[in-house]
Structures are given as C-alpha cells and as structure tokens.
Amino acid sequence: MIKFEEFKDVCQQSIEMIEAAGLLLTPEDKKKITAADFGLNHIKKEGVQILTMFQTDRIAGKILVLLPNQTEPEHWHPTVGNDPGKEEVIRAISGELYFYIPGENNMTQGFIVDGKEDCYTMRNEVVLNPGDQLVLPAGTKHWFQAGKKGAVMYSFSTTVTDLMDQFTDQNIVRDTIIEQEPSNSTY
Amino acid sequence: MIKFEEFKDVCQQSIEMIEAAGLLLTPEDKKKITAADFGLNHIKKEGVQILTMFQTDRIAGKILVLLPNQTEPEHWHPTVGNDPGKEEVIRAISGELYFYIPGENNMTQGFIVDGKEDCYTMRNEVVLNPGDQLVLPAGTKHWFQAGKKGAVMYSFSTTVTDLMDQFTDQNIVRDTIIEQEPSNSTY
C-alpha cells in the first residue's frame, strides 16, 4: 500500500532524474510512469519506478529509476508455458548502479536492506557505470540498488507479464495498491 | 563497395550526431559502429549507420543514424524457420525522420530516390518526431528517410540475422564490402 501523494512524489522525482540524464520524454511517456512498492510499504527503501516505452507481445523497453539508495528486491523471471522466461538486458544511463547476481560474494558498494539477509541472497556485485550493459538470461536471480545519487537505466526484454516474477521475499505482492488515488489521476 | 575513407567518414559523422542528441556512448560502443551501403555504392544517398548496443539470441538494441536526406532501402523481415520474423520497434531520438509503410499514399515530407520508383513501393508516410515510436510487426514492408537535419533513432527488435532481410531493390547486396580497409582499423 502506498499513499497517492507519495506515489506522485516518487514518480515526479523519477521523471526529473530521467530528464536530467538527457533523455527526451514525450508528455505521453510521462503519463505512463508508475511505481512499485512490492507490497512492502516503504517504497523509498524497497521499490522501483518504471516507465514503459513500449511493450508488444514479443519485446518490451522500459526506463527504470532507482531513487538514492533505493533497492529493487531480489527476483527472477521463470519459465512460463512455452516461454523460456524473460531475458533482460540492462543499460545504465546515469547515476550509481549495483547489480547482484549469482557468483562469489564480492560486495563492496551496496548494502543489504536492514534485517533482510534472507531476502537478498545474491552477493556477486556488478557495478554498472553509465553506458555499461548487463545481460540477465532467463531465470537469473537478481536484485539491484542505487548509490547515493540514484540511478536511471534502460531495461530491454522479451515480454512476459511481470506478475509472473518470482521473489525471494515471501512478503512481496507484485501489484502496487495506491491509497486515495483521485479518479482524475494521470498516473 | 565503399572506400574505407568514406566508411570512416560516415561512421564518425554518425557518432557525432548520436552524441549531439545527448546519448552517452562508451569507447566500446563507438568501436562497434558500422555502415551499410547495401551494395549500391552511394552510401550517402542509400545507406544507414548502425551501432549495435546489444544482441543476444533473443533480442537486439541498436542505434540507427541517417545522414541528411539519406534513405534506408525498402525491405522486410521474413519468417525464418520457426521464427515468425523480426519484429522491430523504432523510437525517434533526434532530427527529422519519415517512415513509409503499407497504406494509402500520403507522402508530403520525403522523396523517392531518383529513378527508383519500383524500389520504393510503400508510400504511407509516418513522421516520427523525437520521442515518437513505431511498431513494425514481422513481415511489414518499410523504408525510411531523414530530412535535411538527418535522424538518430533506436531500433529494438527480436533477433534474426539481418542477412535474411528481403529487399524490393534486386540490386541490393546486404553485406557491405569495404575497399582498402587498413588491417588495424577499429571500425
């Protein structure tokens, strides 16, 4: 659950970060931005802002924004029916971005969300500077975090519904419920 | 066939146009830029510059550049084996960009390359301003052209080899042959 004012605030901050990174957004793009709190009720700690540029039956392109020190919870994209699972390519645009994937523990930049060691099990850190890319094959467990400047990145992927994502944190609810959303909201 | 000096020149111009559009390129990105003359031997008239950001077995992301008034020849992405054919999403970044797809003739901005009416049969014009997007389902015949400022765009797609593309112009050879390329070229 997230209050509408907070939802609006994190979306607006994210739009400003995208534009500060030099990307051009149309008015239609800006209306499409949304935020996910994963049902954990503290979006600025665990959450992500998502602007879907396009999504067809086959491919999707999104801009993801992490606010300073915001963390996207650990998850993976499983096989769904005949689909081998969502493959995702991340391209960092601006800010400080740390990805955590399978491999040896080499964490030096990021941090584990307080008291949630069991929900963040991947500890192989990949630092993505602006322009750097990371391919996440289907099924790869991953989480990511911004440094103190926040981070803007592209996510390009095959299309499957994000509602099929699997999370390490069993308290997660993928659908974001917005409290007190005015009926005339453009968000 | 294209002379190495001309190849280097169109690639360098394209890198400058991409950077002028505000996109950040890494040194590795810049090395990956290439140009296609489609075997027609006049790249500044018919041709395109391509910077492949990523290409996996499933998805690809490229930056395409058209120089002022440069035209990419009409083509389509056919079904290949079990693949239904390459689906492509274009997102305009900067400049003046005109796409031609199936539909009624409503051309007002672009032009048909001199004497090549038979090679440019699609005449339904879609003007893409920066931030505008166009989805090209598999099999859609299309060609595109820049106005006098040139154009920079993203192309996101499913992956199939471009060497399978079909062209209306039967003189086209998809492989670009570069004359006098020094062995130490980074292009």
Automatic annotation (TrEMBL), chains A, B:
Task: Supply the InterPro entries for this chain.
Answer: D-lyxose_isomer, RmlC-like_jellyroll, RmlC_Cupin_sf
Task: Write down the Pfam families for this protein, in alphabetical order.
Answer: Lyx_isomer
What Enzyme Commission number(s) does the record list for this chain?
5.3.1.15
GO MF annotations in UniProt: D-lyxose ketol-isomerase activity; metal ion binding
Obligatory cofactor(s)? Mn(2+)
Q: Give the enzyme's main class according to its UniProt record, as a single word.
A: isomerase
Known catalytic reactions: D-lyxose = D-xylulose
Per UniProt, the keywords (alphabetical) are: Carbohydrate metabolism, Isomerase, Manganese, Metal-binding
What protein family does this chain belong to? Belongs to the D-lyxose ketol-isomerase family.
> What is the name attached to this protein's record?
D-lyxose ketol-isomerase
